[in-house]
Write a structure and sequence with these properties.
Layout lengths: L5 E7 L3 H11 L5 E5 L6 H8 L4 E4 L6 H9 L6 E5 L7 H13 L3 E9 L9 E2 L16 E2 L2 E2 L3 E5 L17 H11 L3 E11 L11 H24 L1 H24 L3 H15 L1
Helix pairs in contact: 1-2, 6-7, 6-8, 7-8
């Protein structure tokens, strides 16, 4: 019964290696939407072969994480949606547990599992919103309300918030900060359930053929999205200061990276530098 109430959403971009791992579970999920952002690694061919019941949305170009999730959310007809990064491990039992807790906390807009690193260590990927308080601390021991939780695995009760959609200004990074902040500010609940552990291979969703270029764009979009977020929630003056900070620190770190032959880091800082002046 619980699975009939949930639509699982997975956004892919050159994620064939992840779909191969997920397909034994995904093929048993009746309501599944996979949005592909113009993969060129046969991701969609694998989905079509191994997960035939999935609704497939094929984008001719990479629209970004938030925009792709929005496409899927518009197609959801179940009361719950589960946004799942392809680099997360999932099971039917985890889905059923998330549904169980969402029924208990029926006023919550977002329920999130405890993300685990590949070695099993807890990832404290939840906190208060950045613009309120730079909270730090140990992992939760019991269910608790938070102001932010990672977008890698979000279980959404679609009737409980007007803000369960992504701001498409963010191509990559900080889109989960933004959606959680809007849910938090409307005083809807975001609850982490530490009893549900879900392994997240951080940064493992995509296999790049050109790693140096990947590091450049990683740095670029991280800085760009950070600036967009600060402008939106802290004002243009704060955003200008962040641009200046990225500009100065990136120049220094590019020099250090070149001197020490750390070319991947150099490309990441080059991306940040370009974002600061774009």
């Amino acid at each position: 019964m619980s699975l009939s109430q949930i639509t699982v959403i997975v956004v892919t971009f050159n994620s064939k290696h992840c779909i191969q791992e997920l397909s034994p579970v995904l093929k048993n999920i009746p309501h599944l939407i996979i949005v592909d952002n113009a993969s060129d690694d046969q991701t969609l061919a694998l989905v079509e072969r191994d997960i035939p019941q999935a609704i497939r949305v094929t984008n001719p170009k990479n629209l970004g994480f938030g925009a792709a999730n929005n496409q899927a959310l518009k197609l959801v007809k179940t009361p719950y949606a589960f946004l799942l990064n392809p680099d997360c491990s999932i099971s039917i039992e985890i889905l059923e547990s998330l549904y169980h807790w969402a029924e208990i906390y029926s006023d919550a807009a977002i329920i999130a599992p405890q993300l685990l690193k590949s070695n099993g260590e807890k990832d404290v990927s939840y906190r208060w919103p950045r613009s309120y308080w730079n909270s730090k601390g140990l992992a939760a021991e019991g269910a608790c309300c938070v102001g932010f939780t990672s977008g890698a695995a979000l279980f959404l009760n679609l009737k409980n918030s007007k803000n369960i959609y992504f701001d498409e200004s963010y191509f990559l990074y900080f889109e989960d900060d933004d959606i959680c902040q809007r849910v938090f500010e409307e005083k809807s609940q975001i609850i982490v359930i530490p009893y549900i552990g879900l392994i997240h291979q951080l940064g493992g969703s995509v296999k790049y053929n050109k790693p140096l270029i990947a590091h450049y764009y990683g740095g670029f979009y991280m800085a760009q999205s950070n600036i967009i977020y600060i402008a939106k929630y802290q004002g243009l003056t704060a955003a200008r200061m962040m641009r200046l900070k990225f500009f100065i620190s990136s120049l220094f770190k590019i020099s250090i990276s070149l001197a020490t032959f750390r070319f991947k880091k150099m490309m990441r800082y080059l991306g940040r530098l370009m974002a600061s002046i774009s």
